[in-house]
Structures are given as structure tokens and as C-alpha cells.
Write a structure and sequence with these properties.
heterodimer; A: alpha+beta; seven-stranded antiparallel β-sheet; B: mainly alpha; 8 helices
Chain lengths: 160, 145
């Protein structure tokens, strides 16, 4: 994010343009090393064998089919409205395919992902999420096992 | 001249890599102990000068880019709006997140400077120099003729 002004033609279902950053440029070595460190920091997560890239981020995975970066919380909120997502009351309602959003105290949508599995049987169900951690690789992680805020989690479903 | 400890970039580098939004990076860096130390230890002019030098460098190391954003945030921690504006205007668009972080910091940092008010001075209201000095009063006078 930040070294290009290039955008992809990307619209909501209401055909309103979504601000995005289309940056498939070379990756800094430091980012590759740090992404490797994440594997040690989060050993319980499944680190998918995808490469470090600035091409898309978590919101780009969740809302733009891995084609581009969406880094504005305002844009994410607009997508939820204009695409017609339904907000769920809690994770108890969520099923695989629904979305989880990680909201910071200052209301930044700092992370998002797609729920891929809900493992029942323990004291609490374990919700597993597919997401991308910034410019690092994609990860399937426990909903609460990631480097993002757990201050407020919101759940959404696209019903049609 | 700033002497930076590249061994203390770990937390900032992690934030830089996993950030999905510029606000996330700002939050993480404002809490970073090394950024807070930079803000406390170095005067704003040294920080801005370091960024200016960096902006003119032909080749930049990966760590330099993280340091640039850390220094930018340190100016916000110092709440030095003028220096922050100067740093934001530097041609560092090639540094990932720099422009977005600068924009957020400028919005977040109070733009007013502290002014020492002489509270013990008598408050003397300013009165018009003459009763007919304002256009409204002149009009009233003319209507009342």
C-alpha cells in the first residue's frame, strides 16, 4: 500500500466505485523475512503456501477476490451496505462462508476474513478463519489467534 | 546526528508487514517503545533532517523504510505539528504507507499551538473608535435623519 495510485475498476453491487490500490510490484526482502517469522509466532495457524504480495490484503481477499487492496474502513463499510450484507448478532449465528470483521476502539476495520470452519466439541466452538495478514501470506487461523484487535468482532452474511 | 538501533525495529517491522490499513500501523507505532523513545530523545529538527537526508538517498535499505515511518510517527508523539507538516511534504511517496500515515497523523494531531495567556492582565473590551464608524451604525444614523 502506498507506492502507487493505480486502481482496479471495482464496483459494489450498486455499481459504485470502490477505492482500491492495485500494486503488484516487487516485494521487499524484509517483508518476506517477517512473514516467515509469523509462522513461528502463530504455530497453531495453518500458513497457506501463498507468497508475500502487496497485490491484495485481507479486505481484498474478503471483498475483491484477491485482485486488489482495499485499505479504507470507510470503503469496507460502504461495501457491506451496497452489497447488501446482513449483520449477525454474534458468532453463535455464524456458519462457514460468513465474514468476520475486527474493529479497533477507534472504529477502524483493521482486519477481515472468511469463516471456513466451526469446530464444536470443546468448551467453546473454535471458529476458523481464512484471511491474509497485510502483505504477508494467507492464513487459516483461530478467530482469536491473529495479530489484530479482539476489541470488537462483527459478523456478516451475504444472503443473496 | 541520530544514532538508530536497527535491532529494535522488530515490533515496527511486524506491524509494517501485517498492516491492512494505515490506521492499524499508526496505532501500533504510537505504542512502540522505540518510537516513544525517539520522540523523547531527539529534537524535531534532527528527526526532520534525518527524513530529508533519507528522501535524497539514491538507494534505500528495507529497514530505512520502516525507520522513515517510525520517525514520522515520533513527530506525532511529540505533537509537533509544524515538523509533522514539513515531514509530510517530503518526497517520500516511494515509501510504503508513508503518505497515508502522514495524512492520518496530521488529522489526529492537534493543530493549535500552546500560547501563554497573561491572565492577570485586566480585560479591556475594544470599543468602536467613534459611534458612527461601522456601516450599520452609519445606515441607522442616515435612516434616523
Amino acid at each position: 500500500m502506498g507506492v502507487t495510485d493505480a486502481e482496479l475498476g471495482l464496483d459494489t453491487r450498486r455499481t459504485m466505485h470502490i477505492e482500491n490500490v492495485h500494486d503488484w510490484g516487487p516485494v521487499q526482502l524484509m517483508h518476506i523475512k517477517e512473514a516467515e517469522n509469523l509462522k513461528q509466532l502463530y504455530p497453531a495457524a495453518f500458513h497457506r503456501p501463498t507468497k508475500v504480495t502487496y497485490g491484495y490484503n485481507c479486505h481484498g481477499l474478503t471483498f475483491a477476490s484477491r485482485r486488489t487492496q482495499i485499505s479504507s474502513s470507510r470503503e469496507v463499510r460502504r461495501i457491506l451496505v451496497e452489497d447488501g450484507y446482513t449483520k449477525l448478532t454474534s458468532d453463535a449465528e455464524a456458519v462457514p462462508g460468513d465474514l468476520v470483521l475486527y474493529i479497533s476502539p477507534d472504529k477502524d476495520v483493521e482486519h477481515s476474513g472468511i469463516i471456513v470452519e466451526i469446530v464444536k466439541g470443546g468448551l467453546f466452538p473454535l471458529v476458523k478463519v481464512l484471511s491474509k495478514w497485510g502483505s504477508a501470506h494467507e492464513v487459516i487461523h483461530g478467530m482469536r489467534d491473529c495479530p489484530y484487535t479482539l476489541h470488537l468482532l462483527e459478523f456478516y452474511r451475504l444472503e443473496q | 546526528m541520530m544514532k538508530l538501533d536497527l535491532g529494535r525495529l522488530g515490533n515496527a517491522t511486524n506491524a509494517y508487514v501485517v498492516a491492512n490499513t494505515p490506521l492499524y500501523l499508526v496505532r501500533r507505532l504510537k505504542e512502540d517503545s522505540y518510537v516513544v523513545e525517539m520522540a523523547a530523545h531527539y529534537p524535531s529538527r534532527d528527526i526532520v533532517q534525518h527524513l530529508k537526508d533519507f528522501a535524497t538517498q539514491v538507494s534505500r535499505g528495507d529497514e530505512d523504510t520502516v525507520v522513515a515511518v517510525m520517525l514520522l510517527v515520533s513527530l506525532a508523539v511529540k505533537q509537533d505539528v509544524q515538523s509533522l507538516k514539513e515531514a509530510a511534504s517530503l518526497p517520500l511517496d516511494g515509501v510504503r504507507w508513508y503518505r497515508q500515515v502522514a495524512s492520518i497523523l496530521l488529522q489526529q494531531t492537534p493543530s493549535t499551538n500552546l500560547v501563554n495567556l497573561q491572565l492577570n492582565q485586566a480585560f479591556v473590551p475594544t470599543l468602536p473608535a467613534s459611534p458612527v464608524s461601522s456601516p450599520t451604525q452609519r445606515l441607522k444614523m442616515e435612516i434616523g435623519k
